[in-house]
Every structure is written in structure tokens, then in C-alpha cells.
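Would you mind writing out the residues of a protein together with its fold in C-alpha cell form for me to study?
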Amino acid sequence: MTPQTEQAPLATGPKRNSLGLRLWHWANTAVVSGLLLTILFLFVIVQMKTVGSEFQKVLAAEGVTFSREQVRGLTRIVSHRIWDWHIGLGVALTVLLVLRIVVEVVQKGGQRFGVKLAVARRVFQQRGPELQDSRHSLLVKYSYLAFYLMLVVMVVTGLVLLYADDVEVLHRIEHTTEEVHNITMYLVLAFTAGHLAGVVYAELTKNRGIVSDMIHGGSPAEQA
């Protein structure tokens, strides 16, 4: 009689990436991408500072003459429409940031970002900084933490700019706030590019399945 091979028990427990986190991740990706696209349209593709002269050339070719102020009025219509989209997406980002905090609170222990960071730090301390995997995992977690902080700065400065014309105290710091907001935008853009490059590299090498894990949840959550 052939002895039966004992099968290893299936892993149970909550998945590493909860449904709430996965929904937030893809919604946040769409909103941040939309915000960056509005800036791209305003300052790179459309270039509102130079598009006025192009309007004048096109109108002149059709026998229509517009003054500089009239052309500025046309460019303002385009600019304001894009800014309306930017503001709307900014409000959506604010809502998503609040939802991210809610998701972090209601998730089970091993699914929380704080626990994942604690696990990465513990593994790094146990195995030492010379082990590439533990060092990489900890750096990735810290980069996510930096990204969350950037989102907070983006939302807070964006809200200040939104209400700066209506609140005197906010109006006084509008210029500085705008500079901080713009710098943070470039940092978010840099993080996004780095994150995409890292995911593609991981999928093509030994850490495959990152994207699918953010779709179906991945393996069971680790405990701190």
C-alpha cells in the first residue's frame, strides 16, 4: 500500500492587500494621473503664455482681427476650463486621502501600512543591511511613506490655494503655498516615474506578480 503524501496546509488569513486598499490604489492612480495631465496640458502641450499669438495667426488667416486683450480672453476660457478640471480632481484627491486614513484604521493588522513597515524594519535589523532584499523592501516602504506625506502636502496646499481669495489669512501665504504646491507636484511626478520603472523592472525580473497582487490581493498578510 502506497503511503499518501501529506499535503502542506493552504495558507489562510487576510490577503496582504485588502480590497479597500486595492480600490484606493487604482482610484488614486487615476486621480493623480489626471492632475499631472492637467498641468502637462497647461504648461507643456497648450502653453497658455504662447498660445495667444497662435490664435491671432489662425484668426488673421480667416480675415478676423482680434486685439491682444480679446485673444487673452479666449486663452483664459481654455485655461479656466483646464483649471476647473484640476480643482475637481484635487477635491477628489482630498476625499481619497481621507478614505486612505479610514482604510488604514479598519484594515486587519497585517494589512496595515504601519505593520508592513514594522515588518520590513524588523527583517532589515535581523538580516542586516548587507542583504539586498531586506534593504530594498525597507527602502520601498519608506518611499511609500514619503509619497503619503507628499499627498498630504499636495492636498493641504491645494485647499489653501482654493480658498486664498476668500480668506485673508490664507491670501497672505498664497505665494509661498503655491511654490510649495508646485515643488511637491514635481516630487510626485518623480515618484510616479520611479514607481512605474520599479514595477516594470520587478515584473521582468525575480519579483513578478506585483501588479496582479494589487488586483487580487496577493499572499496572506504578514504579522508584526
In short: The chain has one domain: 19-216. The CA atoms of residues 121 and 138 lie 6 Å apart.
